[in-house]
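Protocol step 4 of 5: obtain the predicted structure for the target chain.
Materials: sequence only (see below). No template structures provided, no constraints applied. The aim of this step is simply to have a reference model before the mutagenesis design in step 5. Sequence pasted as it appears in the construct record:
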Amino acid sequence: MKYLLIGSTRANSGKSATILGLGLKLQELGLQIGYGKPLGTFTSSTLPEINYTEDADVRFITNTLNLPPELCRPTLVSLGRENLKNRLTGSDRTDYLSQLQQYPQSGTPGDLILVEAPANTAEGALFGLNLESISTALDANFILVIRYGSMLVAEHMMISKQRFGDRLLGVVINDIPATEYENAKTILAPFLESLDIPVFALMPANRILRSVSVQQLVDHLDAKILYASDQTDLSNLMVEELKIGAMNVSAAQIYFRKSFNKAVVTGSDRVDIQLAALGTSTNCLILTGNPNLAAETFQRASELEVPILAVSTDTLTTVEIIENSLGRVRLNEGVKVQCIQEMMTSYFNFERFLQLLELEPPTGTK
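Step 4 output (structure tokens):
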């Protein structure tokens, strides 16, 4: 049985999206794919005390790949606060690594089992489930998914190669700004290749993948929906930017015109700002203060079918929650699946990947 880990050097680098893209493409090539995430993560940043039994991305990936139970490997423990406390105090002495070693004996073998590693190379060590331990236990190579910040990501790759050697099958570099893409292609990638680190993909930044749905904002903000058209699917209406409406209306009009598909946070009493936002590319209004909806705002929003939310949190807290949501590739928004597939097809070197992994698709599908 062949396992492949998908890891990263920091959280929110795009592991789950890479797994989904790989899984869909390999299935298209006729290979039988399985999936597992030994170390679970709680699904809400606001409720870390809850020990979730099911990870949201695990559920979404499993459903999207249409995996039968026998091709799914279980999550052994999650990073909820109670689990962490039990581990640190010695109440939990479970040998999770031994449980992990039972992975190869469980379920249907499949051609390849994709295993989602923890958020970085250290996470999970407390439970014996960090990247290196998982790789050794499953005798598995791994891909590192890196979010591009600058060409200094080369340093992370150098250290990873020195530490893990041939276990590191290659890298995927995500979220490369358009202004940096040529440097990544002509300088960074050749340098990594010279260190015997295969670069499977250089992924440009993508606004859709870094966006968040209005439904996610409703959930994260615990917001009340003051208006939403019956024709609007909030799960597929995406917000790409956040703007705060706290200036005079003349300045707001100029400010709002510079951004697209945005959410605007403003006071429920700032009808002038609300109307100015609705005169530009706005996908959602978020009102703070008393949840009052002015008749003028309602009329204009209903004409444009722009949803309006009301929140009980103050502006600073509201903005913090939204900013924490933007930029993370949350998969449970179906509009992103097609985007991931298109990007993987355009930028990922599947031929080299299959060759290094020593996988051969069924005849006629390669």
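Step 4 remarks: The chain has 14 helices and 16 strands. The radius of gyration is 23 Å.
Proceed to step 5.
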